[in-house]
Please model this.
Amino acid sequence: MFEFLQYLPEVFTPWNFTILVLGTVGGLILGATPGLSPTMAVALLIPFTFHMEPATGLILLGAAYTATVAGGAVSAILLSIPGAPANIATTLDGNPLAKQGKATAALHYCFISSFVGGVIGVLVLIFFTPTLSQWALGFGPSHLFWVAILGVTVIGSLGSGSVVKGLFSGFVGLWIATIGYDPVQGVERFAYSEHLGGGINIIAALVGLFAIPQVLSMLTPQMLPGGVTKFAMENQGILTSIGETLARWKALAIGSVVGVLVGLIPGAGGQIAGLVAYDQTKKMSRNKDKFGKGEPAGVIAAESANNAMVGPSLVPLLTLSVPGSPTAAVLLGGLLIHGLFPGPALFTDHAPIVWTFIDSLLVGQLLMCVFGIAISRYSRFVMDIPEHYMAAAITILAVFGTYSVQNSFSDVFVMMTLGITMYFASKIGFSPSPVVLGIILGPIAETNFLQGQIIAEVGEGVFPYFFGGALNFTLVSVVVLSIVYSVYGEYKAKAAQKKTHIQQEYHADVAEKEGV
Amino acid sequence: MLAKRLISIGGLILAVLLLTLGSNVEYGQEAYFFPNLIAYFLFFFALTLLVTEGQLYDWLKNMADFLWRWMFGIVGQGNPARWPDYVRLIPMFVIILGYLYLADIVGLYTTSFITFVLITVVYTPERPRSKRLPKSLLIASIFTAAIYLIFSVLLQLQSPNALLL
Model:
């Protein structure tokens, strides 16, 4: 239970701690930059970790994940542009607070509540993961196949605007993963170009699908709305901010609990955590009318929730390979390139690496809070970086990052092709997360499917093997339920939209008649 | 609605194409079972999209209308994307193509430097562009030096043999 204490000193070795500090500060800066999402920041950093020890590499990715989510609040508060989807709810009260001349206070609330939520989230990760991973020890090929499919369907159906489009994207990812050599027979498939000979490299896919569409979006009509107001930073003592944050303990508690619960649900992500926590805090508050006009409890609830989500989103990832958020899906790629396969054996075969990584997340929360508060007064400078400079820098980093993995220009071509295709696909409503997850989970799904097929052919037959037994039945049911639930949610949202539209038309008609 | 139909038709075409690719193989037919299975699912999802998102009534008429508008760049309701975005991105695509083509001939760091300068000068919102060139050159030099330090010195990256660095 307390194995994490045994590996805590590993976080404080000079090299690991330096990387943790660099990852945290870099993550805060990247998060504060509008347009750079945590998912893209982690994807861009993965090639760097390729040259590091596995534990050190994961420390960098974990620190960047935590810090970018918190850093995204800076542009949400100062510019009313969420640095990441997870910070959407923060803009609702954060920006009005800044307009009232309380920008520093709002940033302090944000980092303090992110720290509290983040620590609670990592503690859940520490105490839940080994138990779940012990349970996952009984998984055979058929179960692992369904778990991989579950990962794709969950991200595809919950993490996208349209269920069918999400599932389509996820299965395109699964298909892309089959390019290259077949894992059982060694036959080369779909390698029509020399660049595809070795299959699709995960890092090339990650960087291309997340970074390039964002670069191209930066260069199309202005992302920043014209005439954005930037605020002067007032002086506010840190002790006052701590006192004011803790005084709103209810918002802090609601945010943390909601964040933990949403994080544990695969595919839900930080934006859902932030918005649900904000909504619940507003409903339970005595000052409902103050929300949206600069209520600190709104910022505290949203930020504690989106950081409390980070730790729990790694629970299904580390135990079952099912990521809790799109960024966790990218982190899965980071684990795989270091030869760490999430699942039952992870905590037994690679215990030092995994526990050092988890411990670094705990220490990272404190660093994020300290550095976040320290740099909040300079945060305006980060947001002044023009977008065309950001686009140029990200393009070159993406090329170097991809090339450095195997010293191969084929990977760079694949990265660019996937990225440009994804840009056009995103314009018609497709999102990169399901594709990436399909590419990452594809080999796991195919290998287990083929192994299961071989076992089934000498035994009970393919259908009973893949659909029989309580665990298979449960997993298939969860796959179906996740799709049905999402379809129902989409149907409800569309019905509500239609109703609002009809009401608007009716009111417009009435107004027109009265005018006449 | 029309755009959604086009997307689902595109999906159907993609699924059929993938199935064709996975079926006409010389040897190792069994190795194509899993990708073909996925292609069947893709076909199913595209078909679902077509049935759920689009009413097939007036399909051909709308399709012809859409193609007419799209071909002549008339931006209007029903077009999946705005025409000017792509026009604005054409220079970027040319820069990327040039970058990838020349990187292992001229040199990875040299082409990166040139790419940085080109992107920042072409996409600067300020006019005249030539005024921003010295600033772009300075920032590109600092950025390329930082990249060199990180990749060549720290990470010992083997850059491709080329005419320049």
Remarks:
- Chain A touches chain B through 48 residues (CB under 8 Å).
- Confidence is low (pLDDT under 50) at residues 223-228 of chain A.
